[in-house]
Design goal:
This protein has one helix at residues 5-8; strands at residues 16-29, 33-46, 50-62, 67-81, 86-97, 102-118, 122-137, 142-157, 163-173, 181-192, 197-208, 218-229. The chain has 230 residues and is an all-beta fold. It has a twelve-stranded antiparallel barrel.
Length: 230
């Protein structure tokens, strides 16, 4: 599951609370009946130097006979401004994905975040973090614990007040075994329909060189949805 923190950060000079809730769903019927439900929640608190960010997501895809997709995650992140260019981040994340055979994946990470460029229409950020990963696979029952590098580059293009696009790419190799790595990419197209409602299209891609048993190396999804911002 890709967590695009960049797209979730509310860019505002105003301190205090911000957030959003969103959902998307689809139903199709041909040979089978397919139902897809996705729900998200986002809460942010900002001061002059500190940023606290909480994210939650639930995604389910079923054909009413079996679950084709079922995952949930919670993500908590703290960001401290050290200067014009450097921030320091710390985060934790809990994830469960039954279809990908992941009973539990817990992440704990920290490292610097760099502002490479920022103007009214375009901004680029990069992060160089380290994280401890604890994973419990369901079948066969396997418990793993390792330290990964968590590196990302993100850019946001906002040509006007209505439309923006954010792309974030992660590279996450194991420190002790560099050929064990993940590449994650998310692209989000967002249209602000009204003051509080937005419409979005998300492209998610992930590659895992050593995935959990019985799951493919490559996964990708495209979703459409809307959110209420407060």
């Amino acid at each position: 599951m890709i967590v695009n923190v960049e797209n979730s950060r509310i860019q505002s000079d105003t301190t205090g609370w911000n957030g959003s809730v969103g959902t998307s769903f689809s139903f199709s019927k041909n040979v089978q009946q397919i139902l897809n439900i996705n729900a998200t929640a986002h809460l942010q608190y900002k001061t002059q130097k500190d940023l606290y960010l909480f994210l939650a997501n639930y995604n389910r895809l079923t054909n009413f006979q079996q679950q084709l997709l079922n995952n949930v995650f919670y993500h908590l992140r703290y960001n401290r401004k050290l200067g014009k260019v450097v921030r320091w981040e710390a985060f934790t994340q809990l994830q469960q994905n039954k279809i990908s055979n992941i009973d539990l994946r817990a992440l704990f990470g920290t490292g610097p975040r760099l502002k490479l460029h920022e103007d009214k229409k375009f901004r680029i950020y990069s992060g160089i973090l380290a994280m401890y990963e604890y994973e419990v696979d369901k079948d066969p029952h396997v418990i793993l614990g390792d330290i990964r590098s968590d590196n990302y580059v993100s850019f946001t293009f906002k040509p006007n007040a209505i439309f923006d696009v954010t792309s974030t790419t992660f590279y996450q190799p194991l420190f002790r075994q560099l050929n064990d790595f993940r590449i994650l990419n998310q692209v989000v197209f967002n249209i602000k329909a009204t003051k509080h409602f937005s419409i979005s299209t998300n492209w998610d891609y992930s590659y895992d060189s050593f995935p959990a048993a019985g799951t493919p190396n490559v996964n990708f999804t495209v979703t459409n949805g809307f959110s209420y911002n407060f």
